[in-house]
């Protein structure tokens, strides 16, 4: 399957603006930060999360899930981001920490994250899970890390049930690797050059804003925060067939492995565990 990947250059004034915004929004993702976390007593709450993953989220990352604060959720751009996290109770918690994936928004201002029960217990040493749960709330260190999927697990596009051919198409991206965020999405007929932009509806869901969907088989291009001015990925061949169906996940045939370059130096804290 033929693929084209190009770097997209922006006017220098816009690049500077993007850099400033990225710096303030991410606060140096790769740095180690401090916050407090709580946990969901019932992980089912995460199946209706703001990212729009639905029940699919319960199968992500072995169930190590989290609802993240608005500064990390980033109006949905942070959905699917992975973080390494460890609690600071030395007698209870493992030094290695555990990896979580963002699937929901946490508006509770007392905590940076609310974890699934499994993710919360996963920070504990063997046999110390009940002791950690008893705390209810704990101090943690965390930093963003690349999401890793097997070579057989490409970036997927799921057609949402709300899609109505030929007038409306809503999709969401699944299994994004690397350490980037999708910030622009366009769709076109395979072989065509008339691209139509899609807008972020909510969380990881993008749609055509009620404009007519291109006919036939569809191709996609999207820009990620892989560089200071972003990088375009373009799947030239068919991603959605002409007879695409609601509720089906389609393979893009590619996986993103880039690590986002952040315009923030020095770090506001540190980049490695002590």
Q: Could you describe the 3D structure shown?
A:
The protein is 12% helix and 32% strand. It has 274 residues and is mainly beta. The strands form two sheets. The protein has a nine-stranded antiparallel sheet with strand order 1-14-13-10-11-12-9-8-15, with no helix packed on it. Strands 2-6-3-5-4-7 form a six-stranded mixed β-barrel. A hairpin with a 6-residue loop joins strand 13 and strand 14. The protein is elongated, with a radius of gyration of 19 Å. The protein starts with a strand and ends in a 23-residue tail after the last strand. The chain has four helices and 15 strands. The chain has two domains: 110 residues, Sandwich (Immunoglobulin-like), CATH 2.60.40.760; 114 residues, Barwin-like endoglucanases, CATH 2.40.40. The longest helix is centred in the first third of the chain and has 15 residues.
Give a quick precis of the structure.
The protein is mainly β. The chain has helices at residues 12-26, 70-73, 117-122, 129-135; strands spanning 3-7, 33-39, 65-68, 82-87, 98-105, 113-115, 138-145, 156-159, 170-174, 182-189, 196-202, 205-207, 218-224, 231-240, 249-251. Mean pLDDT is 85; it is low at 1-26.
How is this fold's topology laid out?
Elements (H helix, E strand, L loop, with lengths): L2 E5 L4 H15 L6 E7 L25 E4 L1 H4 L8 E6 L10 E8 L7 E3 L1 H6 L6 H7 L2 E8 L10 E4 L10 E5 L7 E8 L6 E7 L2 E3 L10 E7 L6 E10 L8 E3 L23
Parallel strand pairs: 2-6, 3-5
Antiparallel strand pairs: 1-14, 2-7, 3-6, 4-5, 4-7, 8-9, 8-15, 9-12, 10-11, 10-13, 11-12, 13-14
* CATH superfamily membership of the largest domain: RlpA-like domain
Class computed from helices, strands and strand pairing: mainly beta
Q: Please give the share of residues in helix.
A: 10-25%
- Report how far apart the termini are: 45 Å
Q: In sequence order, what are the helices and strands, one letter per element? A: EHEEHEEEHHEEEEEEEEE
CATH class of the largest domain: Mainly Beta
Order of strands side by side in the largest beta sheet?
1-14-13-10-11-12-9-8-15
CATH topology tier name of the largest domain:
Barwin-like endoglucanases
What general outline do the C-alpha atoms trace?
Answer: elongated
On the 0-100 scale, what is the average pLDDT?
A: 85
The biggest beta sheet is recorded as: 9 strands, antiparallel
Total number of beta strands: 15
What is the count of structural domains? 2
Second rung of CATH, namely the architecture of the largest domain: Beta Barrel
- CA radius of gyration is 19 Å
Number of helices: 4
Give the strand content. 25-35%
Low-confidence stretches: 1-26
